[in-house]
Amino acid sequence: MNRTEDIGRILKVSGPLVVAEGMGTSRMYDVVKVSEKRLVGEIIGIEGDKASIQVYEDTGGIGPGEPVYPTHEPLSVELGPGLVEAIYDGIQRPLSDIAAKTGSFITRGIEIPALPRDKKWNFVPQAKKGQKVTAGDILGTVAETALIEHRIMVPPGIEGEIVEIGKGSFTVEDTVAVIKTADGKKVNIIMMQRWPVRKPRPYKRKYAPHEILTTGQRIIDTFYPLGKGGTACVPGPFGSGKTVIQHQLAKWADAEVIVYVGCGERGNEMTDVLIEFPELKDPKSGEPMMKRTVLIANTSNMPVAAREASVYTGVTIAEYFRDMGYSVALMADSTSRWAEAMREISGRLEEMPGEEGYPAYLSARIAEFYERAGLVECIGSDDRRGALSVIGAVSPPGGDLSDPVVQATLRVVKVFWSLEDTLAYARHFPAISWLRSYSLYTDSVAESVREAIGDKFLADSKEAMRLLQEEDELKEIVRLIGLDALSPKERLIMEATRSIREDFLHQNAFHEIDTYASLQKQAKMLSAVLKYYREAQKALDAGASLDDLLNLKVREKIVRARYMREADREKIAEIEEEIVSEIASLKKEVSQ
Amino acid sequence: MTPHNTRTRNTPRSTPLNAKKASVKGSRKLQGIIDYQTISSVSGPLLLVEGVDGVKYEELVEIFLPSGERRRGRVLEVDKDKALIQIFEGSSGIEIGQTRVRFLGKGITIGVSEELLGRVFDGLGRPRDDSLPLIPEEFRDINGLPINPFARAYPNEFIQTGISCIDGLNTLVRGQKLPLFSGSGLPHNRMAAQIARQAKVLGAEEEFAVVFGAMGITFEEAQFFIDDFRRTGALERAVLFLNLADDPAIERIATPRVAFTAAEYLAFTRNYHVLVILTDLTNYCEALREISAARKEIPGRRGYPGYLYTDLASIYERSGRIKGSEGSITLIPILTMPEDDKTHPIPDLTGYITEGQIILSRSLHNKNVSPPVDVLPSLSRLKDKGIGKGKTREDHADSFNQLYAAYARGKEAQELAVILGEAALTDIDKKFMSFAEAFEARYVSQGEYEDRTIEETLDLGWELLTMLPRAEMKRVRDEYLEKYYDKTAAKLKKEEENA
Lengths: 592, 499
Known about the structure:
By secondary structure, chain A is α+β, with helices and mostly antiparallel strands. In chain A, 34% of the residues lie in helices and 23% in strands.
């Protein structure tokens, strides 16, 4: 398969970096197979006929003189039916098949195709014979899972007339359609496409995100919303709940397809997803969440270089679903490990380091990655739109936000959910700081929120934020002079914000009901919390005592609103009536 | 990292022209293995050998000193005909012209069999006790192989350690990696020994084993564990790998890997439930830093190499459970935080890999709270799946959430009282403050030999919570409030009346 003169020879092995000579026919970012073990590597530097290769598998036992086989192809992923519900490693090898083949531990040099070759899919044609089609047009669909209709598209670069189109069951390698191009060539279309991971997939036009991506997480949806097609980052020290937030978003985000990339993190976390997602039911369809999820797992003990590839593998798969017109959300946990992989390879290449030993191109790579997100008009002639939202976790050393990876990320992302360890220590989860975080989508998605649940929620959320900021100032006074220095009105604010924090922002991801709150439920809960504040304020003015107001029985009901089922969420409004009546009877006592 | 296939060398390697072959006795040229006398430089624990041929990355090396001493090393980098070698026993006494280097064509392996149990080895897995060498069932590469995440079974079996602040608040489960972050002078060894002594899975009598890996700790510390294991009869179920403070520092890099190779064999081949205790990871990381500095690599934070995270992960991630295997590996690594600083790279990177952390606090230790566990920053990430009905008790999750929240508020009130005086606190804050004090004195603090059942721990929690008004129980479901809070309150009231 390779001409002998193409085969290179290893000169040097240093960890995941191999240098080989005789590589003159290979191009930058080509995939090569290293040694007789055929370890997968990628060319990341060329000097004369010498190539530097980052190897995606362990290089122990490899030495100079061993062969390097070129493939003359860039690192690519396979795209087609069979992606959903799969779990892949960083270079898209199916881990389930690896386990079936080699047992519980991952050995080297395994070659297994990403998409099953023998599985037949039922192809339902959407286009007709004789129809003129262009790249991106939908030829037909495959019901891949109960949640995902896999749309088979004309691959980029092909345009012409359909001369043949099939119907029925096919494997991913069978021809489902034949297209005659303008120059008279007939192209066989199969359901599987290959796409190089480092090259963004094409689209027609990009738009600014304007629709909210609801997540069911109260602090996110109410204060710091993410737009469909937007980018967000979650930096925080260890133990502050980055992974739980990522998991919560993967579970409850209002996206049609989820791509979850576990990059250099714990093996058990991926196992958790694998066990939990098939059990969890999508609130809309009642189908298991796994049926819309693609997992990429390159855990921390798997080879370093493949970590670098895993985020690109993930984002390419996500773009492919975006091209079908879906709203896709990609979670990358953690981008710091990806950056560290870059740093390690860069160090071995003896490049001049930038900040903290990271390569000088760190921020450019990060920006490129997040820029692959967006709300786009897909290629194809039906003007459909797809969105790819990207949420990256960042793990700065010591939780220090001046870390180069955090800083480079903050320069490109539009939403910042800042995790704080002090909140985590008090078991206030999600430990997202309500003062330090920001979202640049708040205004642009406001219209979509208004359409969904009306104006009041937006006003309430502004009011709640104002109170929280006021609390921060009051806290400073209390710290210096003590609680006695505050007027009853100010004390009431402190109590109201405590209620906002504890009864609204705090959310238990492990509680079967509290784990998810629809926008409607959020609006009702917040409204009840603020209703108490407003009514109590009026009562104070009318001469009621603060202590009586603080001891109202209805307050316990506000606390428990979170445990009300979505079906019963209308009952939260009843709490407001009770607030009014209890306070009214208080006032009556005062006037008597 | 992967074990090497042992290369068979039936034919001698072609000898490079510039390589000076060991000219001494022909008998050394066994099975085509060549000795090189071409060391060109020595720097710290590193050797550069030139004119080599067929050397592989990560290969095991033997170094013969003119004195007859034999040392072991590992290939760190190979560039054309130059091999960079890390010597485990250090480079003192190595003479460039006289010392011979032999490449063994395989990675570092240890022999494993069930005979491991009850034995004491050095940091590279050679017998340290005077008994005969082990008769191995098979040899395994110490680097092991990464566990396929698809093949992992999620750790969710509750381990009762008998220590309230672990069982109740930071529950340990089988297959978890939960480090002790400590400082010099704190009783982390006692706590680790208590866990090893008391740990059990409720309702199960299964084969357990302890694998103990010591890196650079003192003789006294090692002896403490050995004595404790001996007294409780755990020694015959334990394998000890000891690299003490006066043993070669670079050897420590192999010690945790050797320990895990033994643990993997016992857990996944022999179906034992293995508890691995590694101490002290700080010494391990320092040895790693020494190698990195000798290689003149670009240092990361505090001089530690940039790949410290990856390196630690390749150790810690070997613990866990595997589908279809009865055994499990639970890991408790101990590390002393320099200057009690949690943001130091060693605890920091460890915390990013392990599933939580138990942090010991000097101020609690000074207050005679024992074990001095700093409850608020401590965490067990896997507790949620290991507790609740059928595992511990239905009210467990709600009660620990409430205990945490209440303790955090009590601590806040304490701080406020320090600044403004207790008089400035509201009544409710005063209640929280006295709750926090009682919590430290009764819940966190317990005797070194006190083995509390999970019921005792949970009941104690409720007892303390009744110090606070019912309306403050915001994290507890109504049904549990009635069942536990109200009942406990009633019981206490009755007892008080009787008294």
